[in-house]
Design brief:
Layout (H helix, E strand, L loop, with lengths): L2 H34 L2 H20 L3 H13 L3 H27 L2 H7 L6 H27 L3 H26 L3 H22 L11 H35 L2 H35 L5 H34 L8 H20 L3 H4 L4 H25 L1 H26 L6 H24 L7 H16 L3 H6 L1 H18 L3
Helix pairs in contact: 1-7, 1-10, 2-6, 2-8, 2-9, 2-10, 3-4, 3-6, 3-9, 4-6, 4-9, 5-6, 6-8, 7-8, 9-14, 9-15, 10-11, 10-12, 11-12, 11-16, 11-17, 12-15, 12-16, 14-15, 15-16
């Protein structure tokens, strides 16, 4: 196993543990939150976070996230690294200042689009403070990632999750907090975590190293990535805006809870993809790299299909235990398509390294521009007819288009022998199968479908869904290393004492 492979595995574990820790805390507290808050509360929270995230993207944070690493890794001296870090943060600060001014003057526009908003001025302030807190945390956590301080990142993530969840549950149960108060707790804890993370990398944040030449270099490389992030946001999150404006906060809340269940998959793979960027940029020149990338593509595809099956079949029964009033009885219909869109988005975006390696990021800009346009059209057409299901379908289809385009372009620039056509088709078919089964179960009121029968169906589908990727799973570096360790232990046991 190569040193790069070991580093990828190690960093994946650290970042995964950090994400798992946050999710474990969220899962422990989720039953309380779901039991006390209404779908409309979840819709309100989801809309504020969605708009705040979009404003953060407009604040030029793509330069810190994707532009900075390409130059940071190539820098030979600490002074040069500090110059790129300081210049990227300074550009983002200017962007965030401009975005804040725009938000302040957008209150009448927001109330015109979203009819359920009450106290519009307070709603606008919540967006601004959430955006600023997310941005500060985003900068600090990315610098921790690119300076390879994965242990600090993991500890900070745990602490952030525990404090935030504890305050949220305490406020909901003891003080009867609703959506606005929950949002306030969220941005205060995120602001604190962001301050700590930036303090941990303070040796890199030296603003007297700001350079106009480096700012120009970063912006020239990153402007397509800014557009890419905007269009990627439209591909993955525009459905929430359409749901909030075309339906109600309640429908948006049902979609938000469905997305929370589906995000279990993102939790499982988030650590891998955080570690994946440095791994690719440090290993793409090696002769073995394309084959390894293809193996990991198959492993991630299989893991995503397994999550579609498990969460699609078991999401509704589990939520019915938490909330017996059937508020979320039909989420099993939506979960497969939400995971499908997320999975293809990751496979198409992260496993298309060609544009990044060749510094031709405008290709991804084009792909996500096309996808965002199609997603907007599909949301506009499907949501009034199918509601939450229409939002899930629109995201899945638009992600499929962006993923296919990224794979075609990337393989022309840097060929990776993955089976992306088969994977994308197979993922769509599995999602459709699970969604149809759940729709039939919901429509014909067969909710007494026994756990034993559901378990058997789950096992059968898991075998059918992962067998096509057996070769990639078998050849992946992690399993090769595990097999070597097991073989070594067996040989050691056979030796006479």
């Amino acid at each position: 196993m190569s040193n790069n492979g070991v580093s990828l595995f190690k960093d994946t574990l650290f970042y995964s543990f950090a994400n798992w820790g946050r999710r474990i805390v969220s899962f422990i507290t989720a039953p309380v939150i779901i039991a006390y808050l209404t779908p409309s509360d979840f819709g309100y929270i989801s809309l504020v976070n969605t708009i705040a995230t979009f404003c953060s993207i407009l604040g030029l944070l793509a330069i810190v996230d994707q532009g900075l690493p390409r130059f940071f890794i190539d820098s030979q001296t600490m002074e040069e690294k500090r110059g790129y870090v300081a210049s990227s943060i300074f550009i983002s600060l200017l962007g965030l200042a401009g975005v804040t001014v725009v938000i302040l003057f957008s209150t009448p526009f927001l109330t015109m689009i979203f009819k359920d908003i009450q106290q519009p001025s307070f709603f606008t302030l919540l967006i601004i403070f959430t955006c600023l807190a997310q941005s500060i945390y985003y900068v600090g956590s990315n610098l921790l990632k690119w300076t390879f301080q994965s242990t600090v990142f993991m500890k900070l993530s745990f602490l952030h999750a525990i404090i935030g969840a504890g305050l949220t549950v305490g406020g909901i149960v003891l003080l009867d907090f609703r959506a606005p108060e929950v949002i306030v707790i969220g941005f205060l804890t995120t602001l604190g975590a962001g301050a700590v993370s930036n303090f941990c990398v303070k040796t890199y944040i030296k603003f007297h190293y700001i350079s106009k030449a480096k700012m120009k270099e970063l912006f020239h490389y990153s402007w397509p990535l800014l557009g890419l992030n905007i269009f990627a946001f439209f591909t993955r999150s525009l459905d929430r805006v359409f749901l909030g404006s075309m339906t109600s906060f309640r429908e948006l809340g049902v979609f938000a809870v469905s997305s929370s269940v589906a995000s279990i998959y993102e939790t499982l793979v988030a650590g891998f993809f955080i570690a994946w960027g440095p791994y690719v940029l440090s290993s793409f020149r090696e002769s073995w790299a394309p084959k390894k990338y293809a193996d990991y593509f198959g492993v991630v595809s299989a893991s995503g299909i397994a999550c579609i099956i498990l969460l699609g079949l078991w999401g509704s029964p589990l939520l019915k235990i938490i909330r017996p009033d059937n508020s979320y009885i039909d989420i099993g219909v939506y979960i497969p398509w939400i995971i499908c869109g997320t999975l293809i988005y990751y496979l198409g975006g992260y496993f298309s390294p060609g544009p990044s390696i060749k510094k031709q990021s405008y290709w991804k800009f084009i792909a996500f521009a096309l996808s965002a346009g199609i997603n907007a059209v599909l949301n506009y057409i499907l949501i009034p007819v199918y509601g939450v299901l229409g939002a899930g379908l629109a995201t899945a289809v638009s992600s499929l288009i962006a993923g296919a385009f990224n794979q075609i372009v990337s393989n022309r620039l840097y060929y990776v022998p993955n089976r992306w056509k088969f994977s994308f088709t197979f993922i769509m078919c599995i999602s459709m199968l699970i969604s149809i089964f759940q729709k039939a179960e919901f429509m014909y009121n067969i909710n007494n479908f026994s756990y034993a029968a559901r378990s058997i169906l789950t096992l059968v589908l898991l075998m059918c869904g992962t067998i096509p990727f057996y070769k990639e799973i078998k050849d992946s570096e992690v399993l090769v290393k595990l097999r070597d360790k097991v073989r070594h232990m067996q040989i050691k046991k056979r030796k006479p004492s």
